[in-house]
Design goal:
CATH class of the largest domain: Mainly Beta
Shape: elongated
Number of strands: 23
Strand order of the largest sheet: 22-19-17-18-16-15-23
CATH architecture of the largest domain: Roll
Radius of gyration: 34 Å
Distance between the termini: 31 Å
Number of domains: 4
Structural class: alpha+beta
Largest sheet: 7 strands, antiparallel
CATH superfamily of the largest domain: ibrinogen binding protein from staphylococcus aureus domain
Strand content: 15-25%
Helix content: 25-40%
Amino acid sequence: MALDGAFLRHLKREIEENAIGARIDKIYQPCRDELVLSLRARSGVWKLLLSARAGSARVHFTKFVPENPKEPPMLCMLLRKRLTGARLVSVRQPELERLLCLDFSTVNELGDRIQLTLAVEVMGRYSNIILVDEKGKILDAMKRVDAGMSSERLVLPGLDYRFPPPQDKLCLLNVSREEAAARVCGLPAGMSLAKALLSSLQGLSPIVCRELQCITGRGRDLKVGDMTPELRERLTFFLGRLSDIIRDTSGRPYMAVGLSKKPIDFSFIPIEQYGTSAIVREKESFSELLDAFYAERDRMERMRSRSQDLLRTLTNASERLSRKINVQRGELERCSKRDEWRVCGDLLSANLYRLKKGQNSAELPNFYEKSEPLVRIPLDPSLTPSQNAQKYYKKYRKAKTAEEVLTVQIGLAQKELDYLDTVFEELSRAGSESDLSEIRFELTEQGYFRARKGAKRRELSHGPMHFRSSDGFAIYVGRNNRENDILTLKRAKKNDLWFHTKNIPGSHVILSLDGRPASRTAVKEAAMLAACYSRGRDSSNVAVDYTEARHVTKPQGARPGMVIYVKNRTVFVAPDRQAAEQLRISK
């Protein structure tokens, strides 16, 4: 699913058609590896995303602008100083390299018209975004590369900017289809055709090479040694057709979606290699395709990088509690022998006349069983028979007390572990910096973080998410545990319906009835929302409990979001995020 040079050529044309002549209005750097340029053109405002993230490097227009940090990084401040107000005059791509050069016309400090270039290198973990001046000197880069990191190509301010070294591959824009086919068929016979295409031709990703192999062999896996004259002729034909598509940028944006509804690959040509194991959808534009493919993945990656301290604290606390519970359960298991110790004490007390000091053991009839079998009881020879009996009674009393205390302690630790599980779930759904701040404050209140001196209790910044069912009922969904408490215990009316996934961490959902009877559609959609905003959101069938809000209570001293409920019913639903977004009326 790499973004290849041929796909990038289609993106280049899309940028040229919409943004040539556009002026840079604003520049953002949401995270370490991303830039967003706000371009104002006659056709409107375009948000151009430049990403150098290793797993999702790309450049395209986006509608999902991520939240920005409070203080811009140094590179962002430099770009704002040098590029704000600049106009995009051209977009260049050397052959089919995974590299776009965005040329901007601007004015320097002396008032002279100059050209600055943003070089976007889309090369996996070597991806980079480099600002180059009119003399070809590097002004700065998103990822500086010094001699300790690379001996071949340095990327540092003040050095000349050089393109990445070219690979020994043929470019379909410069060679004939026959030359390309000859290079591919000249490789070792045991090499697969897809791999031979990948190692011979510039700018093609693995999915395009596999697609060429698929249509050449009519669905069969081919090796170079299998290439008969007929197959070679077919390969030559399809290479020519692919060359025409790339040269004319006449491809279309196709995305393969797996049966689990997750995007698995994309390309600029129709995708047939997955057969019935995937659904191929055509998008309106290449930018829309990349937005759909990467938006959710990038959101999760941004939240992961910004929530490292929260994740570390939660993980350490969970591991500590798990170890504690395991140790206490081991101790509790050892307490299960307490009745045996009481029996030993009783048998010794009933047979004191038969025993004497100095014995190592005693065999006594067990009168608690009908057959009165003999029981061998170990004794301490330094103690009297009476003292040995009291020793067994003491062990019994100690074990009984320990069992009571351990049962309570294990229960408390398990409740705390369940609470941390709900916070883990909140963290996985956090979509913005403010969501993370709410979670951090909740954990501070619960003692997992040290509170700052003079810090006041903060109010919730968002309020619950608001939805409306297909037949007009208002539905509210809590974003975090504090909101769950307020929504369920303060905001919901006693006759409203309360929803929560069965035995799975998730949000509290309230179906507001306003005196009306609940419709079957509203109940089904509210349950679907409860499933979507829970850990079961990727499942195909989720059990959701619901009951009237009057039957939901919070035990005294319970953690945020933890409630108990009675008189509930259960409905099974399939989470549908697209349907959930259609029901949402405010964000």
